[in-house]
Amino acid sequence: MKEFIDSFDKMFESRVRLAIMSLLMVNTKIEFKELKEKLNLSDGNLASHITALEKENYIEVKKQFVGKKPQTTYTATLR
């Protein structure tokens, strides 16, 4: 058991990052606004965790406009 815990990716020692990935594993994609509401985080706090996960290729970020409003969605990668 100790070997399993020792091999656990340090990226997920943060409960916020673990929560983000948990939500992405049960949802095909999720929007920034929904993540922010579900996790009760500030824009900046959520953005920093998203950036860390994106940098390590755990998530994919898609930015687009829907009408005149920006929309950012996230999906888990099959890293």
Task: Write a concise synopsis of the structure shown.
This protein has 79 residues and is an alpha+beta fold. The chain is built from 4 helices and 3 strands; from the N terminus they run H-H-E-H-H-E-E.
Structural overview:
This protein has 79 residues and is α+β, with helices and mostly antiparallel strands. It has one domain (2-76): Arc Repressor Mutant, subunit A. Helices cover 48% and strands 23% of the residues. The protein contains four helices and three strands. 13% of the residues are buried.
Strand content is: 15-25%
Using the CA coordinates, give the radius of gyration: 14 Å
Question: Ends: how far apart?
Answer: 24 Å
Number of separate structural domains: 1
| Count of extended strands | 3
Task: State the shape.
Answer: elongated
Q: Classify the secondary structure makeup into a structural class.
A: alpha+beta
What kind of assembly state do the chains in view correspond to?
Answer: single chain
CATH fold annotation: Arc Repressor Mutant, subunit A
Q: In order across it, which strands form the biggest sheet?
A: 1-3-2
